[in-house]
Amino acid sequence: MKGSSYLKGLNTMRFFAAFFVIISHWQISMNKLGDFRFVNWAVFSRGGEAVEFFFTLSGFLITYLLQKEIARTSTVSIKEFYLRRVFRIWPLYFVIVVIAFVGLGLLLPRLTGQRLFEFPLLPGALLFIFFLPNLASALYPTAVLHPLWSIGVEEQYYLFWSPLVKLFRNKLIRLIGCFLAISLVWYAMVYYRVFTFSSTMRSFFLSQKFYAMAMGGLFGWIFFTRPEQYRRSVWAMPVMQWLVFLLLIWYFVFGVPGYPVIESPFLHFGLSVLFGLLILNSALLDKPAINLEKQPFVYLGVISYGLYMYHMLVDYILRYSAIRFRLADRMGFGKLGAVYVVFLLGGTVLVSSLSYKYLESYFLRLKERHVK
């Protein structure tokens, strides 16, 4: 059901972000099975940028909703903020953790003699339980649990952003501006090795792309406090909407051939700006030039959290089956790749739909019942 906080177009964006993550991992699995010819195609390696979109969207929504709460109550309830996150994020997160550690970490080695995890189970489990999966990924290969790193980053961001917004609620734009500048400079200094961190700590800090969330927060502030000014701005003109959209399409599909700083933090900062503009144009404008409110993408966006969280489990089952039954030899590598991606997408959608209906929706109803 579409509530008062429903913003059009965002579910379609969520789906396509999850889609790019899934096909990037499909490409990785195919490379593990053989010599995958599409390895250099940008469209199959945009999972990282898709996660950055999720970070930007998260910063946008959280800052927007906190402003709504301040307008209604003159403050922020830290308890209710965290409870909303618990009801939405924790159930599925811990389902994946339990399935992975019990099923693949304990039972699989006993049944097959194969060890999936290349790290000690107890220390690894503690890192995931205390929402440090990005530190776990910096320390060890985390296999099917790898996508959880971004959930850890978001939980770490939530830990301080709500209290800061409450504290600086009357100077929110200053808070956002300062945090945006500090987080970008810090990230760049870590990236360019200004500090002599160990490789583990450098990887951990580079996972914390708080600048993308801060950029989302800036657009959330504009959405809430300056909607009419934005509607009259040059960025709301149809030609600019199409420019933003086409720049993102070009980057995600074709990349930037020969660009020397493709992994530069400042390039990714620019992407977060484009993400924010796309979000604002779709959610704020009455008749956006690109209408993203389309079925079935809206529904697929509703279940996108499940798509993101379950796809590696589905991928692992498919890859194990392909190796176990020597499907590449029987089918041919090209046909296997096509069948693999169809089953990966279809299986992930099926599992995510069931999860949303029978697990996530239950906790969402609890959230509506117990949290204002």
Features:
single chain, 372 residues, mainly alpha, 16 helices, globular
Indicate the topology.
Blueprint: H1 10-33, H2 47-73, H3 78-112, H4 121-129, H5 133-139, H6 148-167, H7 172-191, H8 199-207, H9 210-225, H10 227-231, H11 238-253, H12 265-284, H13 297-302, H14 304-324, H15 327-331, H16 333-370
Quick description:
The chain is mainly α. It contains 16 helices and no strands.
Question: Could you explain the architecture of this structure?
Answer:
The protein is mainly α. It has one domain (10-370). 75% of the residues lie in helices and 0% in strands. It contains 16 helices and no strands. It has helices at residues 10-33, 47-73, 78-112, 121-129, 133-139, 148-167, 172-191, 199-207, 210-225, 227-231, 238-253, 265-284, 297-302, 304-324, 327-331, 333-370. Helix 2 (47-73) crosses helix 12 (265-284), helix 5 (133-139) packs antiparallel against helix 8 (199-207) and helix 11 crosses helix 12 (265-284). The longest helix is centred in the last third of the chain and has 38 residues, at 333-370. The model has no long low-confidence stretch (mean pLDDT 92).
